[in-house]
Design brief:
The complex is a heterodimer of chains A (420) and B (415). Chain A has helices at 12-25, 45-60, 103-118, 143-148, 154-160, 170-176, 207-211, 249-267, 303-323, 343-356, 371-374, 401-419; strands spanning 64-67, 73-76, 84-90, 125-130, 194-202, 215-221, 223-232, 272-274, 278-281, 291-300, 327-336, 339-340, 360-365, 380-385. Chain A is of the alpha/beta class and 420 residues long. Chain A is globular and about 80 Å long. Chain B is 36% helix and 22% strand. In chain B, α3 links the parallel β3 (71-76) and β4. Classes of the chains: A alpha/beta (420), B alpha/beta (415). The interface between A and B is large, with 62 and 63 residues.
Amino acid sequence: MTATDTHLAIDRERSRRRIADAVARLTEPGYTRSGTAICRYAYTPEYRRTLDWFTGQLRDLGFETWEDPVGTLVAQNVPRGTPVFALGSHCDSNRNGGPWDGTLGVVIALEVCRLAREHGLELPLRLISFLEEEGSGFGQMLLGSRICAQRVEEADLRERFRAVDDGRSFWEHAEEAGHEPARWREASAVLDDIRAWIECHIEQGRVLQDAGECIGVVEAIAGYVHADIEIDGRADHAGATPMGSRVDALLVAAEVALELEHLAGAAGRGTVGTIGEIEADPGLVNVVPGRVRVSLDIRGTHEPAFRGVARDIAAFARRAAAARGASARYAERQSIPPTPMGAEVLEALDRAAAGAGAPYRRMPSGAAHDTMCVADRAPCAMLFVPCRDGISHAPEEDADPRDAAIAAEVLLNAVVRLAR
Amino acid sequence: MAFDVDRVLGDLRELARRTGGPAGARRVCWTDGWADARAFLRERLEELPVAVDVDEAGNLWAEREGTAGGAVVVGSHVDSVPAGGWLDGALGVLAALECLREHAETERPAVGMRLVDWADEEGARFGRSLFGSSACAGTLDPDAVRDLRDAGGERLEDVVARHGVRLDRAPHAQARLRGIRAYLELHIEQGPVLSSEGLAAGAVVGMFGVERHHVVFTGQTAHAGATPMRERRDAFAAAARSALAIREVAIAHGGVCTVGAARCEPGVVTAVAGRCEMLLDQRHIDAAALAAMRADAAQACARAAAEFGCEAELRHVLSIPPIAFDPRLVAVAREAVAAAGGGDRELPSGPLHDAAEMARHVPTAMLFSSSSPPVSHTREEDTPEPDLRLAIDAFGRAVRRTLELAGAGELPPRP
C-alpha cells in the first residue's frame, strides 16, 4: 500500500462551512471589543465568552474541558495521563487584529476533533488554546505558552508584566478573572503527555498566495534578535545650520536602514531585517534631529546568518555615525534561537498533504508562534494556510475557508498516521 | 551720553539677573516674566527724554522725534522661549536702547529715532511667532490666531487681553509704519557660520525662504518575520533613501534641507512600515533656487518610493518667500562691521526675525553677532564677550550711518 491509499477523505464543503461559520461567529459583538477590528485580550469579557463558546462546542463532542491556573483552555477526549496528540493555537488578538490570526488554529483543531468523532476514529486528542500569544494585554508575546513551558519567573507574573491598558499586574488581572496565578507552575501539565503537537495558522506572508499553493508545512520557526540602535548627533536650528555643519542623527538612521536591506538580502537563507519603529528627538520640523532611535527585528531559521546580520548592522551603525561626527549604541532587547520541527511529524504532514492532493510546500515560519514553547516538551510542526496579500494584524486580514478545510483534512490524516 | 558698549553689557546682565538665571531666560511672552522684562526696559527708558507707549498689538515703542520728521527704527524682542538664552532678542533691544541714549545727546536732530520691543516674536506659548511685528506689517489675521490654545488650554485672545491687547484691534498697529525711514536690528546668529569662520559679526543680506511639506510614503504593512525582503513594500526604506537624497539636493543648490522627524505606521518592531510620514523643511535665500530644491526633493522622493514599490506624496504645509534686505543698508552694515574691526562677511538668516515683517514695508537690514556654542533656544546659548562687544559697536556705527543717510534725504519717511 502506498501512502495515498490510506488517505482519509473528508467532506470538505461541510468542513469549509463549519470553519467559516465559527470564524464569522467570533467576529460578532460580544467576542470583540471593537466594531471594526478584532480586539480580544485575556481576562476580558470578550475573551471569556470566546473560551466559553469553544468549551460548549467541545463538551458537545464529549470532550472533558478545563482551564489551567492561569486560564489556558484544555480539552481532551481521553482520561488525563493518557498520551495524546495535541492541536490548537490561541484566540487572543492583536491590538487592531483580524478574524483569522490564532483563532483559525483553534477552530481547525475543533474541526479535527469533530471529524475524528464523525469518522469514528479513536484518536487520543487534546485541544489547547493558549492565552496572550500576541502580547496585546500585557505587552508580552507568547505569554500563555511561555507560562506552560515555565519560561517565565514568578516575579514577572506578580510584578513585571503589567497590563498595557491600566498598568496593573498580570497577577492582579488573573486573580480578578477568577484564576489562581499562585499555582502557575501547575500550568506545566498542559504540555504533559504530548506525543506530537501541530498548530495551524495563517501564513501572515504571501509566499503561498504568490506560488498558488494552499498548504505550507512549516519545517522551522525563525529565531530572532530584537534590538534598538540609538544615534546621538546634535540638534541644530534647521535654518541657521549649513549642511556641512550638521550632525544629523536621522541621516545616520537612514543609512542604517538601507544597509540593513543590503545585509539581510546578502545573508540569504531566508534572513530578514526590519526597522519598524523610528523616534526622532526633538522631532520638530525646524530642528535637525539630535537623537534618533530605530528598532531592529532580524530573523531567520539559520542562526549564524541572522546573528551575523545583527552584528554587522551594529558595527555599520557605529561607523556611519562616526563618519558624520555622531555616535551610535546598539542594545539588544531579546533574542531567541530558531526552533526546529519534529522530523516524524513533518513527514506525516508531507504525506497527508500529498494524500490530500493539495499543492503545498515546506517553508520556514518567520513569525513567532506558541509552537516554539511547546517544542520544549514535544515533537512539533505547523501548517500554514495562505492569507490574502499576506495581510495580518489588521482588520482586513482574510483567508479562504476552503484552504482551511484542506488543512483540517491534512491535520486529521497526519494524526492518524502518527497514531498508527 | 556717548555710545557705551559696557553699559549694554551691564544692561544685558541685569536683565538676565532679573528674568533669567542658571535655568535660562524666563521671559515667555504674555507671562509675568515677560512683564518683568518690560518693566526693566521702561525703567531704563524713563531716564531718557523719549515718549514711551504700547501699540494695539502690544509692541512697546519709545520715540525721540527729529526736526525733519520720520525716524530710524531700532529694536528686537525681549520675550524668550522657556529656559531660553540670555541674548536671543534681548541683545537687539538693549543695543537699540544704547542707540537711543546716544541719540538723546544730539541736540535738535533732523532725523528721529524709535526703539521697538516687538511682542511675542518667539510664539513660545501659542506656536505663532512674530505676533507683534506681523500685526504692524498687516499680515496678522486675528481670526487665524484667536482660538490658538497654550499647553494649559487657555485661548490666545483671552491671554493677550490680560496684557492689554484687544486682539481685534491689533491690526491698528499698522499705523506705526508711518514715518519709518529704515529698520535696523541686531541679533545673535543662532548658527555656526560666523564662529566657524572666526568672525565676530556679519551683515545679514536677507531671510531664507521656507518650503515645508509632510512627505507621505505609502507601501504595504507586512509581518517582519513572514515577508521575504524582495516581497516588501517598505515605506520606511523609501523614506530613508529620500532623506539621504534630499541632503544632496540641499548641497547641490547651496540651501538647507532638513528631515526633522519620521513616523512609521503601524510603528511596531515586528511590522514592515506600510506608511511613513516625514517632515521636510527646505530653505534658500533665492526664490528660484528654493523652487528648484522643492522640485528636486519631490523627484528624489518619487524615485526612492518607486525603488521600494511605494508611492510618495508631498503635502504642502507652508511657504514663505525669501526676503532680501535693502542693499544700501546691507552695505552700511558691512562697512560698520569692518570699521568695528570685524571681517567683511555677508550671510543670509536661516531663522525668521521681526525684521522679515518690516522688510515688507521699509528699508531694512540686520547685523548678526556670532553664536558660540552655535545653538539657540536653550540656556547654553552664548556669544564670546569680545564678539559681543564688536557686534554692539558695529550696530552703533550702522545706526549712526543710517541716520546720516536719512538726514541726507536718502531714506524718506514712509507716508
